[in-house]
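Supplementary Methods, section 5.1.

A reviewer requested that the exact input to the structure prediction be made available. We therefore reproduce it here, unchanged from the version used in the analyses.
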Amino acid sequence: MNEIGTRPQVGLACSGDVRERYVGASDLAKLEKFADFHWREFNEQTSWDAAPSASSRVMAEFREFAAGLDALVVCHGAPRIDDTVLGSSRRLTLVGELEGDRFAQRIDVEAALNRGVRAVDTTHGSSYPVSEWALGLILIGLRNAGAHFRKLISGVDWGTPEQRDSTSEFAQNEELTGKTVGLIGAGYIARRLIELLKPFNVKLLVHDPYAAPELASALGFTLTSLEAVMAQPDVVVCLAPLTPGTRGMLGRREISTIKPGAVFVNVSRGPIVDSDALVERLEIGDITASLDVFDPEPIPVSSRIRNLPNVFLSPHIAGTTERSRTRFFEEMVSELERHFAGHETLHNLTLKTLANRRGE
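The structure derived from this sequence is encoded token-by-token as follows.
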């Protein structure tokens, strides 16, 4: 590590793959205009469900790396920022998580807050591509494009004047403009999707028990019940995170209330939806689905969902663009810039934030 001067010292602890793929040259150059950057490679086991467990040797190295830093950012491969790491630098004022850890497994948030250290995360960086794909799936569903694509690649003539006039696949060919859209969840993805929907002049119904009325007023949507969001819109989009409370939240009863002719879109997590109940409703043929996620994944070759003409499927690709990876670091650099300029950061991790994400 370079000799510490008056400039903020920012450290990134992560695997070599993260360093190579996530840290864009232009973003690093922006950071180095106001801070000195240090990287240390760590390769601890990453888990979605538990904090990384590191040896005493690795933790000693991690504390040595953190010593003298003003900000410490972690990502895949990093050990956990615990109280001993937080105490290793008297200058530390911010810790951050780049991506892939909505529940802060790599940061002891309570310990950070107790020491007056701000905790932030930029996991919302993937919200941009997910919201774009959600919009794409809405449009695909409204046009029943999945059914037409299946026909066109099957080797049969498709699109004759007679077929356009008489077949059910052509009967559903709807515009998004002026429709009612229901969103399950009002987090980062929903807020970005709402921006993308503005040109279509849609009416928005949103269900999210954690959303403040002020957010609804600012973004122009109506907060309502899950029952209303499922039953009233022309398009229902599932954007809720997977928590103990949302697992299986959309069961047979909820799915049965989707109105005939509506489109159901899921870009969140498959286990939120009862797969069997969804398949049974789709087999009736009166609704259309556009699904980026399913339960289980990958979708079994034998699953009936693969063969339904009123379904468009993609293999959980919504948030995995290359651009989304560099955006995590780009967003973190912006947070660091705000922090060291004396401004408030936008994406703070608090105990309440984590409780909401866990559905507690």
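The chain is about 35% helix and 15% strand. These observations are discussed further in the main text.
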